[in-house]
Amino acid sequence: MSTNHPVQPVYPQYLTGGGEMGQLTRDYNWSANLLGSPENWSQSLLTTISIILNSRFPMFLWWGPELIQFYNDAYRPSLGNNGKHPGALGQKGAECWPEIWPVIKPLIDQVMAGGDSTWSEDQLIPIYRNNKLEDVYWTFSYSRVNGESGKPAGVLVICNETTEKIYALQTLQKAKLEIEQAQAESEAQRDTLESALQAAELGTFDMDLEKGTMEWNDRCRNLFGISHREPVDYEKDFIGGLHPDDRERILNVIGKSYNKSESNGDYDVEYRTIGAEDQNLRWIRAKGKVYFDVHDRAQRFVGAVLDITEQKMDEFRKNDFIGMVSHELKTPLTSINAYIQMLRAKMKKTEDEMMVSFLDKMNAQIKKMTGMVNGFLNISRLESGKIHLDKQSCFLDELVKNVVAESEFTASGHHIELICNEPIPIYADQEKISAVISNLLSNSVKYSPKGKTIEVKCMLMDATAHFSIKDEGMGIKPQNIEKLFTRFYRIETKHTQNISGFGIGLYLCAEIIQHHEGKIWVESESAKGSTFYFSLPAAQEVSLTSTAQLA
User: Fold this and answer.
1) At 455, which CATH number?
2) Is 15 helix (H, G, I), strand (E, B) or coil?
3) CB count in 10 Å sphere of residue 303
């Protein structure tokens, strides 16, 4: 009696392992292939396939006259996705590689004919993969594999795709060329900058705040009156070269520039130097930038310095002239005003209303002229450093109310809405702060049509006194706002050509507020109106006597 057992598929030892490709090779229906069933394969083919499947290096095999294909897991990624895999297994070489067959077939024929093995390094051989024809670079060798007869029966391909390496090298080469080009451009720009610096007579400085070193060019050394060629010493050459009256102020400004949250690293200041060797006094304009690390620590401080001595001397001479002329004009204006008051008193007794009206108009013009003269005097004092602040304890809200009350006659064509509902204590020069409020109110009246509302507001917030005045006037274009508080700056349009002024009012306002350690700014939209603001430090307490003085 015989026992029938089911026939088990034969997996010879040489087809074991090999990962995905080993499994695909074992599962392949080789009986339907030109090579036939593995049981009939030559020992040479079996041994070669075993080596390929169990190698971790990319390998590929063409076998027989039709160059039937085998490959391993290490080679598999080079075929990409949605391309030749897994159809390439058991396929004829010519059918698998039509796009490169004219390139590789001569190499295969050379080896199959008994010629020497080939070696190609970083060879561009485009193949179809990932649904497109891709440029692929390879380093590979073709070696013959002999059959049982000792004659070439196949070609073993040991290869490595080097596409990423080639692209990386190309990127590096491109970067190298860009760096070389940038270096050439940088050198040209440096030469151009150096020429410009020399032409403009600009000095430059560069401080490494980590190392504590400082570099000056020749012009910067000249401006500090030093001729030695030794490294610049911060304490000796820079701080020692500052005018004693400017030293503390400049060190404070530099300290603030090292604080990113306070200054954003910006540095723009004027100061005097006393030459270390020549003892000459020079006025310097310095502008620079502090650079910070990711932790906002100051790392580098660079900038330029310009000799503005002649410019300053011209300003001093001009201010002296303005002060002298303004002072000389003030005396006759005072006399004219006195005569007008005397005439007015006399005309009132005669009940000549027309003459009284004329004298009132003359008086208004004299006041306007006196105001302009006082403005020029204040400019002269400000810029010569002779302005005096008579600070006293007072209330901002009361100063505002007084100015608004005094302007009722001149602003009669406008509706003034006053919003000051709480005591706002400040420590300030009452006369000068009142002048600021009066100037801002006067501007709102001048630059807005009659019948419009002007909102005057003051409030106390976060230990700071705030003032704002909003009008419905002509507004200010963005390009004019940054220059608005500049001395003698006027916006010239068809709307302003008939409005008198010299462009000193807002400049004086800004200077007065800054001398009070406050801030002044404006928000505006052309043709819709403007809102001017200023803020001052609030005082802790205000005595009753100071309040009474405002009455």
Assistant:
1) 3.30.565.10
2) helix
3) 20
pLDDT tens digit at each of 551 positions of the chain:
444 444 444 446 667 888 999 999 998 999 999 999 998 899 899 999 999 999 999 999 999 999 999 999 999 988 887 778 899 999 999 999 998 899 899 999 999 998 888 888 888 888 877 777 888 888 888 999 998 888 999 999 998 888 888 888 888 888 888 888 888 777 767 666 566 556 556 888 999 999 989 999 988 898 898 888 899 999 999 999 999 999 999 999 999 999 999 899 999 999 999 988 888 899 999 999 999 999 999 999 999 999 888 888 877 776 666 655 655 566 677 777 777 778 777 777 777 778 777 777 787 777 777 766 666 666 666 666 556 788 999 999 999 999 998 887 667 788 999 999 999 999 999 989 998 998 899 889 888 888 899 999 999 999 999 999 999 988 888 888 888 888 777 765 555 555 555 667 888 899 899 999 999 999 998 888 999 999 999 997 654 433 333 33
Residue 206 in 3-state DSSP? strand
Q: Is residue 191 part of a domain?
A: no
List of E strands, 17-86:
59-63, 68-71
Q: Are residues 323 and 413 in the same domain?
A: no
Q: SS3 string of 447-503? A: CCCCCCEEEEEEEEECCEEEEEEECCCCCCCHHHHCCCCCCCCCCCCCCCCCCCCCC
Judge if 424 and 542 occupy the same domain. Answer: yes
Rounded (10°) angle between helices 353-383 and 505-515? 50
Look-up: residue for tokens 């509302």?
453
Both 35 and 64 in a single domain? Answer: yes
541 and 482 co-located in one domain: yes
- Residue-by-residue DSSP string for 94-123: HHH-TTTHHHHHHHHHHHHTT---EEEEEE
Q: Name the domain boundary from 357, 383, 409.
A: 383
Which burial class, exposed, middle or buried, applies to 505 when counting CB atoms under 10 A from its CB (0-12, 13-18, 19+)? buried
The answer to whether the CB of 270 falls within 8 A of the CB of 284 is yes
> At 369, which CATH number?
1.10.287
HSE, side-chain direction, 13 A CA sphere, residue 73 = 13
Same domain for 231 and 372?
Answer: no
Instruction: Choose among 87, 34, 50, 30: nearest CA to 9.
Output: 30
Domain that holds residue 357: 312-383
218 Cβ contact list (under 8 Å, min separation 6): none
Q: Is 303 helix (H, G, I), strand (E, B) or coil?
A: strand
- Three-state DSSP at 137 gives strand
26 and 156 housed in the same domain: yes
Residue 3 lies in a domain: no
Q: Which of 364, 383, 402 is the last residue in one of the domains?
A: 383
The first and second tokens of residue 416, run together, are 């003034």
Rounded CA separation 201/194 (Å): 10
Euclidean distance between CA atoms 496 and 504, whole angstroms? 15
The count of domains in the chain is 4
